[in-house]
Amino acid sequence: MNRINKNRANRGLRASLLLICLAAASQAGAQSAAAPDFKAMLAAIDEQGNFKTVDLSAKVKIVTEEPGKAIDTKAVQSLRRDRDDKFLMLFLEPVSQLGQGYLRIDDNLWIYDPESRKFTHSSMKENFSGSGAKNSDFGQSTLASDYAVSASAEGRLGSFDVWILELAATDNEVTYPSKKIWVAKKDGLLLKSEDYSLTKRLLRTVYYASYAKLGTSYVADRIIFV
User: Fold this and answer.
1) Is 103:109 a contact under the CB 8 Å cutoff?
2) Other C-beta atoms within 10 Å of 161: how many?
3) Is 47 helix (H, G, I), strand (E, B) or coil?
4) CA–CA dist 216, 140 (Å, integer)
5) Is the pTM of this model over 0.70?
6) Are strands 101-105 and 86-93 parallel, antiparallel or unpaired?
7) 36: Cβ–Cβ under 8 A, 6 or more apart, which residues?
8) Are 58 and 221 in contact (CB under 8 A)?
9) C-beta contacts of 64-67 below 8 A and 24+ residues apart
10) Longest Cα pair distance anywhere in the chain, in angstroms?
11) Could you report the per-residue pLDDT of 184-203, keeping only the tens digit for each?
């Protein structure tokens, strides 16, 4: 189980993010329905979750819980500059990882080791520091440019009326080749995502449990990965 808490953002922006990864998976279904402009809906999700005019700075706490293992806790300073498609993740805790960092510039992701003072090239598709989160989870949202809507349906998720969209990747650079997402009809916020392999095997489920508004953008301040 991974829990992430974000509680600092620059230029007066403040946020808290909790991310949880569990060793299980779940599925949901809904009936098909007539659709609005879903491409525009994906673009709206990207727009309301990204920061094009300011930099975002936040402290991220990741707590990983797995059956039979001790709880693992990490604290990371996160910096995002979406207009240049860059981010930096710098470890604050545990002491054994103090000073380690992840730096993304364009399509390149580098991991810095302070002991060897060397950078190692990595991929956005890799798991972040052994957690259930992917490196790509810490960058800006790019659903509209990375996916096309292949199917749609109306449904409910808890107390929310939602659109359920099946997405197919439009390029080979994405972390997951297909996804299914649940989008709230009321405000267009992403509530749930199922991520699949090329063979349509469910790899993980993501719940966006709550959001914080930062200026005109929204940041999920509690995310659960299953």
Assistant:
1) yes
2) 11
3) helix
4) 15
5) yes
6) antiparallel
7) 163
8) no
9) 64/1, 64/2, 64/21, 64/130, 64/131, 64/132, 65/1, 65/2, 65/22, 66/1, 66/23, 67/23
10) 57
11) 999 999 999 999 999 999 99
